[in-house]
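Section 5.1 Outputs to date
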Amino acid sequence: MSIQTKTQLQLLAEFLLTSLSPIVKANDLDAWQENGTLILSGEDKGSEGYQVAKWKHNAVIALERFPHRRINPYNLLAMVAAFLIDSNWQRDEYGLDDPQLDIDVVSKDHATVLIEVQLMDDIELLPDDNGPVLFNGERYRVSLVPLNIAETVDVQQKGAE
């Protein structure tokens, strides 16, 4: 089982770059986080791991030289919406705002597009004797806690003859 180690912002930026490739190049995309809130949790996730917080932040993706005549800008809007819907975050439950876009046409062939979206990442810990985080008197490293999902279920019906 692979454990996701990338942030929601990294995943969104990679999704957009892959979806817009080869027309949009990697050096035309920049992404960063700003104005974040650390929502404390301390939830025991099993497997000796804990969720210590959620990181709610504004993510900004800047697309330079976006070829708005070669790529229908509505395709970009649909890509952002599709990623957020497919990410399965309960956006309403966590009060995450809808994305905002600012499009600045800089020439007849190119525009600069700023995408601002609120995202949330889980901050989870796994035991690690050399980990940098001291929590509950133990050492941990930041890593998503693996989920143990039952692959089979044994159901027995009482009173069946």
